[in-house]
C-alpha cells in the first residue's frame, strides 16, 4: 500500500491549460485525485459498493419556482446500504454522503468514513448523486447535451442540489418510517461546502455535518488573494528550502530559455516531452499544476511534495542547472517513462472538469486562482473582469460573484455563527491549499474545527489504511466522538420531549 | 379612537365566496384588516410615511437558477427612513419590515412597531415590498398580467422573496457602509413567517426576528385540522355561552329555511340583504367570514366578538327566533344601514386576494380551512384532492404541499430548534385563530414565545394607541427588552472580536 498515492500521481494527467486565459478551467476542487478509483491498491474499497442498492428518485427540476417547466421531474440516483442499520424502531442514525462534482459511484469507492463507521453507529448509509453528474441528468439529455443547452444547464446550481438532497432524505425517512432517526451529512471539498450549508439551511433534516476540506471562505474576497498559492509555497518550503528556492528561480529561467530562437525545442528536450512544447506557458502551467496537486493531495506515507523535492534536491545538476533539477522533480513524481508532460490539449475533459467549469462560471466564483507576491510562483492576480469576460464568452451569462455569500453567508462567520447554528465539524489538512479558505478555529462549542498540520485534502473522510499515521487515526476518532456527542444529546432531547 | 377597529369592521366587505368549492379564495392571512389604512382615525400613522424616501432596487428575477431569463431584473420598491438613525460609525441598528401580500405603503401606515421604537434604538427603518405586489412587479407587466401569465407568475414564491430581501439588505448595508450594523427583521402574518424564516435562512444578514402571528406550523398536517375554527369557537364561547349556542344552532335553521319553497326570499327579508340571496350557502359563508374576522381582529378596546355577541344576546327574538338574533349580531358589527350582506360576486378582488390565491395554490398550502366537529360551525373537513383539483383548474399547476416543511422545516420544531438557531420572537394573540398554527411556547433561551390571552392578529406590531390595554403595552415593552438583549450581546461580541 505504501505507494498508493504516489501511483495516483503517476496516473495523473494534467488538466492545466497552456494559456493564461484558460487557467480558470482547472477543476482542482475535487475531494480526491480524479484517478483514485482506478488505483489497484484501493480495490479493497471498490468491493464496498456491493453492499449498496441503487435507487432513482423522481426529483423536481426547479424547487424554487412554479413555472410550468419547474414541475418537470428527472431521475436522481442514490445508493443505500442497510447492512449495518439498527432500524427505525431504535431510531438508529442515517449517514448521508452529499455528492459533489462527479458520478456518485466514484465516491462510494473512496469515501470510506461512512462505511467504516456505520457498524459502530448501526447507521443506514446513503450516497446521493449531485444533479447533472453521473446518471442524474435532467430533461432527458446526456451530460454533454445538458451542459450545452443554456436553459437546461441553468438549473445546475448548488441551491437546487441542496433542495434535491432535502427531498431525497425526507423521502427515505418517510419510506422507512424513520422520522426520529438522526441524519448526519458528510461531504468533502465542494461537497464539504454543501454538507456545512445543508446543516445551516436544513437543520430540520440533518442533525449535524462533517465538512471536510470545505473552503467556504473562498468567496467574495473573504480570504485574501494568494492564500491558496502561499500554502503550496509553505508546503514546499517546509519540505526543503533549497527545493523551494529552485522552483522559485525556475520560472524566470523557463521564460529566458523559451524566449530564445531554439528555446522551445531546448525545453522540450530537457523535459523529454511527449510532444514538442508550444510555449513556455505550457510547461509552466504543467509544473504549477503538478506542485498544486502534490500539495493538495500530499498524503502520507509518501507525501508527494517530499517526493518532488527529493527529485529536485537530489538531481545531478552540473550540466543544465535549474531546469534539470526541475525535470528531476517531474521524474520523481511521475516515475520512469519514455516521455513526459502530456498537454491536455486534445484530451476529452471529464464530467468533473466540464461540470465544475460551468459551476465556477455561474455561482462558484472562488478566489483560489490569484497568485500574489508571497509565493514561489510568478505573481498572477485574479482578474474578475477577465473572468467575467471568459464566462460570458463560454456560456453567454456572467457569474454572480456575491450570490454564495448572500445565500450561505461567509463574511464575519465567527460573529454570525457564534450564537447561531450548531453541530458542524470543519476538518482541514493544513497542507491542502484549500485550507486557506476553510474554517480553522472553533466557532462555538458545537461548531468546531479540526485542522491537522500534516493533513491534505479530504484525507479524514477517505478510506482508512493500515499505513495511516497516528495523528490521522486520532483525528478520525475525535470526529467520531463529536458526532456521538450530537447523537447522544439528540436522543436525550427526544426522550425528554416524549415524556 | 375608541371605535376605530369597529369602524374597520363596518368598512369590511366580505370576500367569502358563495359556494363551497370556492372557499379557498379566502385571503384571510393579512396582518391587518384590508381596510385599515382607509380608517380616518388612523390618520396619525398615515403621516409617518413622510419620513420615508422611496427607492427601487434592480432585483434579480430568479436567484436560484442560471437560465438566460433568470438574469432578468425588475425594479423592487423599498422605503427608508433615516430620521432616527445613529449612523454606521456607531453601528446603529437597522429595522427591516419584510413586506407581505400587499403593497408596502399600506404597511408603513399601520405597522407602527418599527417607527415607534426607532428613536430609542437610533435605528434606520426600511420597509421592503414583496415581489409581485404594489410597484414591484417583474417582467414589465401589470399585476394582473403577471398573475395571468403561467411563466411570469412562476417566479412568485416565498424563497425568491426572501432572497430579494437578502439582496436589498446587503445592498443598503454596503451603500451606507453599515457592515457592523445589526439588522432586526419584523413581519406579521405571512410576513411574520417570512421574518422567522429569514432569520433561520439568512442569519448572516439578520441578527434577529420579530415574527408576529406567524402560523409557521400550519403546513403539512403539523397542526391538526380544525384548530383554526376551534379558536374562533373558543372566542365566542368565552364572550358568551348563549351567543355561542345561538350561532351553533343557526346553521341548521338557515338550511331548514333555505330548503323551503320561499325560503331564500324569507332569509333575504330577515337579513335585509342588499340583493336577493342566491343560496343559503351565500348567507352562511358571509356569517362564517364575519365571525372569523371578528375573532382574528378581535382588537381592544371594543373587541368585535363581544360586539357581535352583544347584538345576538340582546336581540328581541320573540318573533323570528334564532335568525333574528343572528341578524342582530350582523347589525351590531356592521352598524345601521339600509341593507346588509353584500355578496362579493361582481366586486373586483384586491391584489392581496389575487396574489394570495396564487400563493396558496403553489406553495402556501395551509390547513386553516378545515372545520371539524369541535366547533360552533358545521363540519367541513379540508379535502386535499379537491384543493389540488381547484388549483389545477385555476392555474394548470398542482400545489406542492410538502415544500414549505421541506425547505423551512416545521415538523418537530421544538426538537430541531432547541439546539439550532437563535433570536426569534414568536408573538401570538390567542384570540387570533391563526395562533393555533403558531409557536406558543419558548423553544430555547433565545427563541421565545409571547402569547397574549386577549391578543388578536398582529396586534403587537400595529401602531400603538392611547387606548391600548396595559397587557399590550407590557408585551411590546418585553419584546423591546428581548431585542435590546440581542443587540447588546452582538455589540459585546463585536468588541471582543476586534480586540
Automatic annotation (TrEMBL), chains A, B:
The keyword Hydrolase applies. Residues 1-21 form the signal peptide. It holds the Pfam family Peptidase_S28. The keyword Cell membrane does not apply. SUPFAM superfamilies: alpha/beta-Hydrolases (SSF53474). Gene3D superfamilies: alpha/beta hydrolase (3.40.50.1820), Serine carboxypeptidase S28, SKS domain (1.20.120.980). One of its GO terms (biological process) is proteolysis. GO terms for molecular function: dipeptidyl-peptidase activity; serine-type exopeptidase activity. This is Lysosomal Pro-X carboxypeptidase-like. Coiled coil: none annotated. It comes from the Eukaryota. It comes from Rhodamnia argentea. Belongs to the peptidase S28 family. InterPro entries: AB_hydrolase_fold, Peptidase_S28, Ser_carbopepase_S28_SKS. Keywords: Glycoprotein, Hydrolase, Protease, Signal.
Amino acid at each position: 500500500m505504501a505507494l498508493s498515492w504516489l501511483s495516483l500521481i503517476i496516473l495523473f494527467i494534467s488538466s492545466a491549460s497552456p494559456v493564461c486565459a484558460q487557467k480558470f478551467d482547472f477543476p482542482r476542487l475535487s475531494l480526491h485525485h480524479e484517478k483514485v478509483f482506478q488505483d489497484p491498491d484501493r480495490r479493497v474499497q471498490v468491493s464496498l459498493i456491493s453492499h449498496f442498492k441503487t435507487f432513482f428518485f423522481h426529483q423536481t427540476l426547479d424547487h424554487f419556482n412554479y413555472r410550468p417547466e419547474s414541475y418537470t421531474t428527472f431521475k436522481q440516483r442514490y445508493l443505500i446500504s442497510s447492512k449495518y442499520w439498527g432500524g427505525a424502531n431504535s431510531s438508529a442514525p442515517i449517514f448521508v454522503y452529499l455528492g459533489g462534482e462527479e458520478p456518485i459511484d466514484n465516491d462510494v469507492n473512496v469515501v470510506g468514513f461512512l462505511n467504516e463507521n456505520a457498524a459502530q453507529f448501526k447507521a443506514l448509509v446513503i450516497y446521493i448523486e449531485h444533479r447533472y453528474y453521473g446518471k442524474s441528468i435532467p430533461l432527458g439529455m446526456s451530460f454533454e447535451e445538458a451542459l450545452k443547452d443554456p436553459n437546461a444547464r441553468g438549473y445546475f446550481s448548488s441551491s437546487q442540489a441542496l433542495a434535491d438532497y432535502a427531498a431525497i432524505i425526507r423521502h427515505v425517512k418517510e419510506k422507512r418510517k424513520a422520522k426520529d432517526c438522526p441524519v448526519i451529512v458528510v461531504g468533502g471539498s465542494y461537497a464539504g461546502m454543501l454538507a456545512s450549508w445543508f446543516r445551516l439551511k436544513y437543520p430540520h433534516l440533518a442533525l449535524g455535518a462533517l465538512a471536510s476540506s470545505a473552503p467556504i471562505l473562498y468567496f467574495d474576497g473573504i480570504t485574501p488573494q494568494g492564500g491558496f498559492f502561499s500554502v503550496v509555497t509553505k508546503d514546499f518550503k517546509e519540505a526543503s528550502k533549497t527545493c523551494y528556492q529552485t522552483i522559485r528561480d525556475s520560472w524566470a529561467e523557463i521564460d529566458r530559455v523559451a524566449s530564445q530562437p531554439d528555446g522551445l525545442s531546448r525545453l522540450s528536450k530537457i523535459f523529454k516531452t511527449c510532444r514538442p512544447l508550444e510555449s513556455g506557458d505550457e510547461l509552466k502551467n504543467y509544473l504549477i499544476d503538478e506542485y498544486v496537486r502534490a500539495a493538495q493531495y500530499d498524503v502520507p506515507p509518501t507525501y508527494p511534495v517530499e517526493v518532488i523535492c527529493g527529485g529536485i534536491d537530489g538531481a545531478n545538476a552540473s550540466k543544465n542547472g535549474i531546469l534539470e533539477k526541475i525535470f528531476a522533480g517531474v521524474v520523481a513524481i511521475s516515475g520512469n517513462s519514455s516521455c513526459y508532460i502530456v498537454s491536455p490539449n486534445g484530451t476529452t475533459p471529464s464530467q468533473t472538469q466540464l461540470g465544475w467549469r460551468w459551476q465556477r462560471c455561474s455561482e462558484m466564483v472562488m478566489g483560489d486562482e490569484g497568485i500574489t507576491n508571497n509565493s514561489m510562483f510568478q505573481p498572477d492576480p485574479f482578474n474578475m473582469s477577465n473572468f467575467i469576460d471568459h464566462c460570458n464568452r463560454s456560456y453567454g451569462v456572467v457569474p454572480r460573484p456575491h450570490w454564495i455569500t448572500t445565500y450561505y453567508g461567509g463574511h464575519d462567520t465567527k460573529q454570525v455563527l457564534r450564537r447561531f447554528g450548531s453541530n458542524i465539524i470543519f476538518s482541514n489538512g493544513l497542507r491542502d491549499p484549500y485550507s486557506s479558505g476553510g474554517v480553522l478555529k472553533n466557532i462555538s462549542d458545537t461548531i468546531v474545527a479540526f485542522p491537522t498540520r500534516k493533513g491534505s485534502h479530504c484525507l479524514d473522510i477517505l478510506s482508512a489504511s493500515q499505513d495511516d499515521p497516528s495523528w490521522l487515526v486520532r483525528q478520525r476518532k475525535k470526529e467520531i466522538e463529536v458526532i456521538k456527542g450530537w447523537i447522544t444529546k439528540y436522543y436525550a432531547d427526544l426522550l425528554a420531549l416524549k415524556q
